[in-house]
Amino acid sequence: MSTHVPAGYKWWTGGKSPYNVSYGKLMMWIFLLSDTFTFGALLISYGTIRVSQNYWPDPNHVFNAFPLMGHANLPLAFVSLMTFILIMSSVTMVLAVHEGHKRNRAGVEKWLLWTILGGSLFLSCQAWEWTHMITGSHAVLVDGQIKEIGATITQNPYGPAVPGLMHDGHAVTTPGPVGFGGFFFGITGFHGFHVFSGVCLLVLAFVWTKMGRFDNLGHYEMIEKIGLYWHFVDLVWVFVFLCFYLI
Amino acid sequence: MSSHEHHTEHGVASPEITFAHEPAPNTKRIWKTFWILLVLTIAELALGLSHYAFHLEGFLLLFVKGAMIILSLCKAVYIVSIFMHLGDEIRNMRLTVLVPLLLFIWFILAFLWDGVAWRNLRNRYDKPATEQQAVPHDQHKPKAD
Hints:
The structure holds two protein chains of two kinds. Chain A has helices spanning 23-51, 59-62, 77-101, 105-135, 179-210, 213-217, 221-246, and strands at 138-142, 145-149, 161-167, 170-173. By secondary structure, chain A is mainly α. Chain A has a domain at 23-131 and 184-246: Four Helix Bundle (Hemerythrin (Met), subunit A) (Up-down Bundle). In chain A, the strands form two sheets. Chain A has a two-stranded antiparallel sheet. Chain A has a two-stranded antiparallel ribbon with strand order 3-4. In chain A, strand 1 and strand 2 (145-149) form a beta hairpin. In chain A, helix 1 runs parallel beside helix 7, helix 3 runs antiparallel to helix 7 and helix 4 runs antiparallel to helix 5. Chain A starts with 22 loop residues before the first helix and ends with a helix. Chain B has a domain at 2-89. The longest helix of chain B has 26 residues, at 28-53. Chain B is flat and about 70 Å long. The termini of chain B are far apart. Chains A and B meet through helix 1, helix 3 and helix 7 of A and helix 1, helix 2, helix 3, helix 4 and helix 5 of B.
Protein backbone atom coordinates (compact mmCIF):
# COMPACT_ATOMS: atom_id res chain seq x y z
CA MET A 1 0.00 0.00 0.00
CA SER A 2 1.35 3.36 -0.98
CA THR A 3 -1.39 5.17 0.87
CA HIS A 4 -0.94 5.59 4.61
CA VAL A 5 -4.41 6.27 5.96
CA PRO A 6 -4.67 6.80 9.73
CA ALA A 7 -7.44 4.92 11.54
CA GLY A 8 -10.72 6.85 11.71
CA TYR A 9 -9.72 9.13 8.83
CA LYS A 10 -12.78 10.94 7.44
CA TRP A 11 -12.83 10.92 3.61
CA TRP A 12 -16.22 12.52 3.14
CA THR A 13 -16.02 15.66 5.33
CA GLY A 14 -14.87 17.89 2.48
CA GLY A 15 -11.59 19.49 1.54
CA LYS A 16 -10.08 16.33 0.15
CA SER A 17 -10.51 13.84 -2.67
CA PRO A 18 -12.72 11.07 -1.22
CA TYR A 19 -11.49 8.45 -3.69
CA ASN A 20 -7.89 9.63 -3.40
CA VAL A 21 -7.62 9.61 -7.21
CA SER A 22 -7.74 12.44 -9.72
CA TYR A 23 -10.93 13.34 -11.59
CA GLY A 24 -9.55 11.97 -14.86
CA LYS A 25 -8.62 8.61 -13.42
CA LEU A 26 -11.96 8.26 -11.65
CA MET A 27 -13.80 9.00 -14.90
CA MET A 28 -11.67 6.43 -16.73
CA TRP A 29 -12.73 3.85 -14.14
CA ILE A 30 -16.39 4.84 -14.53
CA PHE A 31 -16.08 4.57 -18.31
CA LEU A 32 -14.43 1.15 -18.01
CA LEU A 33 -17.21 0.04 -15.67
CA SER A 34 -19.82 1.00 -18.28
CA ASP A 35 -17.79 -0.73 -21.00
CA THR A 36 -17.69 -3.84 -18.81
CA PHE A 37 -21.47 -3.92 -18.96
CA THR A 38 -21.45 -3.45 -22.74
CA PHE A 39 -19.13 -6.41 -23.22
CA GLY A 40 -20.98 -8.31 -20.51
CA ALA A 41 -24.29 -7.82 -22.34
CA LEU A 42 -22.75 -8.97 -25.63
CA LEU A 43 -21.18 -12.08 -24.13
CA ILE A 44 -24.28 -12.96 -22.12
CA SER A 45 -26.51 -12.66 -25.20
CA TYR A 46 -24.06 -14.97 -27.00
CA GLY A 47 -24.31 -17.42 -24.08
CA THR A 48 -28.11 -17.23 -24.12
CA ILE A 49 -28.33 -18.08 -27.83
CA ARG A 50 -25.68 -20.77 -27.49
CA VAL A 51 -27.42 -22.66 -24.69
CA SER A 52 -30.73 -22.35 -26.58
CA GLN A 53 -29.29 -24.47 -29.43
CA ASN A 54 -29.06 -28.23 -29.46
CA TYR A 55 -25.79 -28.09 -31.36
CA TRP A 56 -22.92 -25.61 -31.19
CA PRO A 57 -19.55 -25.91 -33.03
CA ASP A 58 -16.59 -27.18 -30.98
CA PRO A 59 -13.96 -24.39 -30.91
CA ASN A 60 -11.20 -27.01 -31.17
CA HIS A 61 -12.53 -27.84 -34.65
CA VAL A 62 -13.22 -24.25 -35.73
CA PHE A 63 -9.97 -22.64 -34.57
CA ASN A 64 -7.34 -25.13 -35.66
CA ALA A 65 -5.44 -23.28 -38.38
CA PHE A 66 -2.07 -21.53 -38.19
CA PRO A 67 -0.49 -19.20 -40.79
CA LEU A 68 1.77 -21.01 -43.30
CA MET A 69 0.88 -24.40 -41.81
CA GLY A 70 -1.62 -25.36 -44.53
CA HIS A 71 -4.25 -27.85 -43.39
CA ALA A 72 -2.35 -29.02 -40.30
CA ASN A 73 -4.73 -29.59 -37.37
CA LEU A 74 -3.41 -27.28 -34.62
CA PRO A 75 -6.35 -26.61 -32.28
CA LEU A 76 -6.14 -23.33 -30.35
CA ALA A 77 -2.46 -22.81 -31.26
CA PHE A 78 -2.93 -19.50 -33.07
CA VAL A 79 -5.28 -18.01 -30.50
CA SER A 80 -2.80 -19.00 -27.79
CA LEU A 81 -0.21 -16.93 -29.59
CA MET A 82 -2.64 -13.99 -29.77
CA THR A 83 -3.38 -14.33 -26.05
CA PHE A 84 0.33 -14.41 -25.24
CA ILE A 85 0.94 -11.27 -27.35
CA LEU A 86 -1.82 -9.41 -25.50
CA ILE A 87 -0.59 -10.46 -22.02
CA MET A 88 2.93 -9.43 -23.02
CA SER A 89 1.69 -6.01 -24.20
CA SER A 90 -0.08 -5.60 -20.86
CA VAL A 91 3.25 -6.18 -19.10
CA THR A 92 5.08 -3.65 -21.28
CA MET A 93 2.23 -1.18 -20.60
CA VAL A 94 2.54 -1.52 -16.84
CA LEU A 95 6.32 -1.11 -17.22
CA ALA A 96 5.69 2.17 -19.10
CA VAL A 97 3.47 3.32 -16.22
CA HIS A 98 6.24 2.32 -13.80
CA GLU A 99 8.82 4.40 -15.71
CA GLY A 100 6.34 7.28 -15.88
CA HIS A 101 6.04 7.26 -12.11
CA LYS A 102 9.81 7.66 -11.94
CA ARG A 103 9.48 10.39 -14.61
CA ASN A 104 11.97 8.60 -16.84
CA ARG A 105 11.02 9.83 -20.29
CA ALA A 106 13.29 7.45 -22.24
CA GLY A 107 11.89 4.47 -20.31
CA VAL A 108 8.28 5.50 -21.02
CA GLU A 109 9.04 5.91 -24.73
CA LYS A 110 10.72 2.50 -24.92
CA TRP A 111 7.90 0.57 -23.23
CA LEU A 112 5.19 2.50 -25.10
CA LEU A 113 6.79 1.45 -28.39
CA TRP A 114 6.81 -2.22 -27.29
CA THR A 115 3.14 -1.92 -26.30
CA ILE A 116 2.24 -0.35 -29.66
CA LEU A 117 4.09 -3.23 -31.36
CA GLY A 118 2.17 -5.80 -29.28
CA GLY A 119 -1.19 -4.19 -30.05
CA SER A 120 -0.43 -3.99 -33.77
CA LEU A 121 0.70 -7.63 -33.84
CA PHE A 122 -2.52 -8.68 -32.12
CA LEU A 123 -4.60 -6.76 -34.70
CA SER A 124 -2.64 -8.36 -37.55
CA CYS A 125 -3.28 -11.82 -36.08
CA GLN A 126 -6.98 -11.04 -35.83
CA ALA A 127 -7.04 -9.84 -39.45
CA TRP A 128 -5.49 -13.14 -40.54
CA GLU A 129 -7.89 -15.17 -38.45
CA TRP A 130 -10.94 -13.36 -39.83
CA THR A 131 -9.71 -13.67 -43.42
CA HIS A 132 -9.05 -17.36 -42.93
CA MET A 133 -12.53 -17.95 -41.52
CA ILE A 134 -14.42 -15.87 -44.09
CA THR A 135 -12.56 -17.16 -47.17
CA GLY A 136 -12.25 -20.76 -45.94
CA SER A 137 -14.22 -23.32 -47.93
CA HIS A 138 -15.98 -26.17 -46.15
CA ALA A 139 -18.16 -28.75 -47.86
CA VAL A 140 -21.67 -28.22 -46.51
CA LEU A 141 -24.92 -29.93 -47.46
CA VAL A 142 -27.42 -27.13 -48.22
CA ASP A 143 -30.87 -28.07 -49.62
CA GLY A 144 -29.58 -31.45 -50.76
CA GLN A 145 -26.56 -29.98 -52.58
CA ILE A 146 -22.93 -29.80 -51.50
CA LYS A 147 -21.70 -26.20 -51.34
CA GLU A 148 -18.27 -24.90 -50.36
CA ILE A 149 -18.78 -22.02 -47.93
CA GLY A 150 -16.84 -20.08 -45.30
CA ALA A 151 -18.01 -18.65 -41.98
CA THR A 152 -19.76 -15.27 -42.21
CA ILE A 153 -22.52 -13.52 -40.27
CA THR A 154 -25.12 -15.21 -42.51
CA GLN A 155 -23.70 -18.73 -42.86
CA ASN A 156 -22.01 -21.21 -40.56
CA PRO A 157 -20.32 -24.25 -42.09
CA TYR A 158 -19.44 -25.81 -38.72
CA GLY A 159 -22.56 -27.94 -38.28
CA PRO A 160 -22.75 -31.63 -37.34
CA ALA A 161 -21.25 -34.02 -39.88
CA VAL A 162 -23.49 -35.88 -42.33
CA PRO A 163 -22.77 -39.57 -41.56
CA GLY A 164 -20.83 -41.30 -44.30
CA LEU A 165 -20.83 -38.40 -46.79
CA MET A 166 -17.42 -37.29 -48.08
CA HIS A 167 -16.39 -34.60 -50.58
CA ASP A 168 -12.79 -34.26 -51.85
CA GLY A 169 -11.56 -36.25 -48.87
CA HIS A 170 -13.36 -34.09 -46.29
CA ALA A 171 -16.43 -34.99 -44.24
CA VAL A 172 -19.51 -33.06 -45.38
CA THR A 173 -21.41 -31.17 -42.67
CA THR A 174 -24.83 -29.58 -42.38
CA PRO A 175 -25.01 -25.81 -41.70
CA GLY A 176 -24.47 -24.95 -38.02
CA PRO A 177 -26.47 -22.40 -35.98
CA VAL A 178 -26.40 -19.16 -37.95
CA GLY A 179 -25.85 -17.04 -34.83
CA PHE A 180 -22.28 -18.28 -34.50
CA GLY A 181 -20.75 -15.91 -37.08
CA GLY A 182 -22.69 -12.87 -35.92
CA PHE A 183 -21.61 -13.30 -32.32
CA PHE A 184 -18.03 -14.28 -33.16
CA PHE A 185 -17.36 -11.47 -35.64
CA GLY A 186 -19.45 -8.98 -33.66
CA ILE A 187 -17.78 -9.53 -30.30
CA THR A 188 -14.19 -10.14 -31.45
CA GLY A 189 -14.68 -7.21 -33.85
CA PHE A 190 -15.87 -4.92 -31.05
CA HIS A 191 -12.89 -6.04 -28.97
CA GLY A 192 -10.57 -5.51 -31.94
CA PHE A 193 -12.01 -2.01 -32.31
CA HIS A 194 -11.04 -1.39 -28.66
CA VAL A 195 -7.52 -2.66 -29.36
CA PHE A 196 -7.33 -0.37 -32.39
CA SER A 197 -8.44 2.70 -30.39
CA GLY A 198 -5.97 1.66 -27.69
CA VAL A 199 -3.12 1.60 -30.21
CA CYS A 200 -4.18 5.07 -31.46
CA LEU A 201 -4.15 6.39 -27.87
CA LEU A 202 -0.72 4.81 -27.28
CA VAL A 203 0.67 6.46 -30.42
CA LEU A 204 -0.74 9.78 -29.20
CA ALA A 205 0.81 9.20 -25.77
CA PHE A 206 4.14 8.38 -27.41
CA VAL A 207 4.10 11.62 -29.42
CA TRP A 208 3.15 13.62 -26.31
CA THR A 209 5.95 11.96 -24.31
CA LYS A 210 8.44 12.66 -27.10
CA MET A 211 7.35 16.32 -27.15
CA GLY A 212 8.07 16.58 -23.43
CA ARG A 213 4.46 17.35 -22.55
CA PHE A 214 4.45 15.24 -19.38
CA ASP A 215 7.83 16.55 -18.21
CA ASN A 216 6.39 20.07 -18.45
CA LEU A 217 3.26 18.99 -16.56
CA GLY A 218 5.40 17.39 -13.87
CA HIS A 219 3.59 14.04 -13.93
CA TYR A 220 2.85 11.14 -16.28
CA GLU A 221 -0.74 10.51 -15.21
CA MET A 222 -1.96 10.37 -18.82
CA ILE A 223 0.15 7.22 -19.27
CA GLU A 224 -1.61 5.71 -16.23
CA LYS A 225 -5.05 6.52 -17.62
CA ILE A 226 -4.27 5.08 -21.06
CA GLY A 227 -2.69 2.14 -19.24
CA LEU A 228 -5.98 1.50 -17.43
CA TYR A 229 -7.75 1.38 -20.78
CA TRP A 230 -5.13 -0.96 -22.26
CA HIS A 231 -5.32 -3.40 -19.33
CA PHE A 232 -9.09 -3.36 -19.64
CA VAL A 233 -8.77 -4.44 -23.28
CA ASP A 234 -6.56 -7.32 -22.10
CA LEU A 235 -9.11 -8.12 -19.39
CA VAL A 236 -11.94 -8.32 -21.93
CA TRP A 237 -9.84 -10.67 -24.06
CA VAL A 238 -9.56 -13.04 -21.05
CA PHE A 239 -13.34 -13.49 -21.24
CA VAL A 240 -13.61 -13.47 -25.05
CA PHE A 241 -10.92 -16.17 -25.07
CA LEU A 242 -12.86 -18.12 -22.44
CA CYS A 243 -16.28 -17.85 -24.09
CA PHE A 244 -15.34 -18.38 -27.74
CA TYR A 245 -12.21 -20.52 -27.74
CA LEU A 246 -12.11 -22.54 -24.52
CA ILE A 247 -15.65 -23.43 -23.51
CA MET B 1 5.34 27.61 -12.22
CA SER B 2 5.89 26.90 -8.54
CA SER B 3 2.79 24.70 -8.29
CA HIS B 4 4.25 22.35 -10.88
CA GLU B 5 7.40 21.95 -8.86
CA HIS B 6 5.27 21.01 -5.91
CA HIS B 7 3.53 18.32 -7.99
CA THR B 8 6.74 16.82 -9.27
CA GLU B 9 7.75 15.92 -5.73
CA HIS B 10 4.82 13.50 -5.57
CA GLY B 11 4.67 12.57 -9.23
CA VAL B 12 0.86 12.78 -9.07
CA ALA B 13 -1.62 15.16 -10.64
CA SER B 14 -2.87 16.92 -7.54
CA PRO B 15 -1.29 17.71 -4.14
CA GLU B 16 -4.34 16.50 -2.23
CA ILE B 17 -4.00 12.99 -3.68
CA THR B 18 -1.59 10.77 -1.79
CA PHE B 19 -2.03 7.71 -3.98
CA ALA B 20 0.56 6.97 -6.67
CA HIS B 21 0.71 4.05 -9.05
CA GLU B 22 3.56 1.60 -8.77
CA PRO B 23 4.15 1.57 -5.04
CA ALA B 24 7.05 -0.84 -5.43
CA PRO B 25 10.44 0.68 -6.28
CA ASN B 26 11.33 -2.18 -8.66
CA THR B 27 9.48 -4.25 -11.27
CA LYS B 28 9.55 -7.54 -9.34
CA ARG B 29 5.80 -7.56 -8.66
CA ILE B 30 5.00 -6.88 -12.34
CA TRP B 31 7.06 -9.81 -13.60
CA LYS B 32 5.75 -12.11 -10.89
CA THR B 33 2.19 -11.27 -12.05
CA PHE B 34 3.22 -11.94 -15.66
CA TRP B 35 4.41 -15.45 -14.77
CA ILE B 36 1.23 -16.15 -12.81
CA LEU B 37 -0.91 -15.03 -15.78
CA LEU B 38 1.15 -17.17 -18.15
CA VAL B 39 0.84 -20.28 -15.98
CA LEU B 40 -2.93 -19.75 -15.58
CA THR B 41 -3.31 -19.36 -19.38
CA ILE B 42 -1.32 -22.54 -20.05
CA ALA B 43 -3.49 -24.39 -17.51
CA GLU B 44 -6.62 -23.10 -19.30
CA LEU B 45 -5.27 -24.25 -22.66
CA ALA B 46 -4.42 -27.68 -21.28
CA LEU B 47 -8.01 -28.03 -20.03
CA GLY B 48 -9.42 -26.68 -23.32
CA LEU B 49 -7.40 -29.19 -25.32
CA SER B 50 -8.13 -32.04 -22.91
CA HIS B 51 -11.84 -32.09 -23.68
CA TYR B 52 -10.91 -32.25 -27.35
CA ALA B 53 -8.31 -34.98 -26.93
CA PHE B 54 -10.30 -37.21 -24.57
CA HIS B 55 -13.85 -36.42 -25.83
CA LEU B 56 -15.13 -35.66 -22.35
CA GLU B 57 -18.88 -35.72 -21.79
CA GLY B 58 -21.48 -35.05 -19.12
CA PHE B 59 -20.31 -34.17 -15.62
CA LEU B 60 -16.60 -34.33 -16.46
CA LEU B 61 -17.02 -31.86 -19.34
CA LEU B 62 -18.98 -29.54 -17.06
CA PHE B 63 -16.22 -29.82 -14.45
CA VAL B 64 -13.50 -28.91 -16.99
CA LYS B 65 -15.53 -25.93 -18.24
CA GLY B 66 -16.13 -24.77 -14.66
CA ALA B 67 -12.40 -25.03 -13.94
CA MET B 68 -11.62 -22.88 -17.02
CA ILE B 69 -14.13 -20.24 -15.83
CA ILE B 70 -12.52 -20.14 -12.37
CA LEU B 71 -9.03 -19.84 -13.89
CA SER B 72 -10.24 -16.93 -16.08
CA LEU B 73 -11.68 -15.18 -13.02
CA CYS B 74 -8.31 -15.59 -11.28
CA LYS B 75 -6.59 -13.97 -14.26
CA ALA B 76 -9.11 -11.11 -14.13
CA VAL B 77 -8.38 -10.56 -10.41
CA TYR B 78 -4.62 -10.35 -11.06
CA ILE B 79 -5.02 -7.95 -14.02
CA VAL B 80 -7.41 -5.64 -12.15
CA SER B 81 -5.67 -5.77 -8.79
CA ILE B 82 -1.99 -5.60 -9.83
CA PHE B 83 -1.82 -4.23 -13.40
CA MET B 84 -4.68 -1.75 -12.98
CA HIS B 85 -3.65 -1.13 -9.35
CA LEU B 86 -7.19 -1.34 -8.00
CA GLY B 87 -5.78 -3.40 -5.12
CA ASP B 88 -3.65 -0.40 -4.10
CA GLU B 89 -6.54 2.08 -4.10
CA ILE B 90 -8.48 2.99 -0.95
CA ARG B 91 -11.59 1.05 0.02
CA ASN B 92 -14.05 3.74 -1.17
CA MET B 93 -12.61 3.51 -4.66
CA ARG B 94 -12.42 -0.28 -4.77
CA LEU B 95 -16.03 -0.73 -3.69
CA THR B 96 -17.33 1.89 -6.15
CA VAL B 97 -15.89 -0.13 -9.01
CA LEU B 98 -16.52 -3.65 -7.70
CA VAL B 99 -20.00 -3.53 -6.11
CA PRO B 100 -21.89 -2.76 -9.39
CA LEU B 101 -20.32 -5.90 -10.88
CA LEU B 102 -22.50 -7.98 -8.53
CA LEU B 103 -25.33 -7.32 -11.02
CA PHE B 104 -23.60 -9.80 -13.31
CA ILE B 105 -24.55 -12.68 -10.99
CA TRP B 106 -28.25 -12.11 -11.68
CA PHE B 107 -27.58 -11.12 -15.26
CA ILE B 108 -25.80 -14.38 -16.16
CA LEU B 109 -28.12 -16.70 -14.22
CA ALA B 110 -31.33 -15.14 -15.57
CA PHE B 111 -30.29 -15.09 -19.21
CA LEU B 112 -28.74 -18.56 -19.36
CA TRP B 113 -31.82 -19.91 -17.57
CA ASP B 114 -33.96 -18.30 -20.25
CA GLY B 115 -31.80 -19.77 -23.02
CA VAL B 116 -32.18 -23.28 -21.63
CA ALA B 117 -35.94 -22.80 -21.24
CA TRP B 118 -36.10 -21.65 -24.86
CA ARG B 119 -34.32 -24.78 -26.03
CA ASN B 120 -36.58 -27.05 -24.00
CA LEU B 121 -39.71 -25.37 -25.35
CA ARG B 122 -38.54 -25.63 -28.95
CA ASN B 123 -37.51 -29.26 -28.58
CA ARG B 124 -40.97 -30.03 -27.21
CA TYR B 125 -43.23 -28.01 -29.54
CA ASP B 126 -41.17 -27.15 -32.61
CA LYS B 127 -39.77 -30.55 -33.56
CA PRO B 128 -39.39 -30.37 -37.36
CA ALA B 129 -37.53 -27.04 -37.33
CA THR B 130 -35.01 -28.16 -34.70
CA GLU B 131 -34.39 -31.52 -36.35
CA GLN B 132 -33.52 -29.75 -39.55
CA GLN B 133 -30.96 -27.67 -37.64
CA ALA B 134 -29.23 -30.44 -35.76
CA VAL B 135 -29.85 -33.55 -33.74
CA PRO B 136 -28.15 -33.86 -30.34
CA HIS B 137 -26.01 -36.95 -30.07
CA ASP B 138 -27.50 -38.18 -26.80
CA GLN B 139 -31.12 -37.95 -27.96
CA HIS B 140 -30.60 -39.58 -31.32
CA LYS B 141 -30.32 -43.26 -30.46
CA PRO B 142 -30.59 -45.31 -33.66
CA LYS B 143 -33.54 -47.71 -33.47
CA ALA B 144 -32.79 -51.40 -33.79
CA ASP B 145 -33.59 -52.53 -37.33
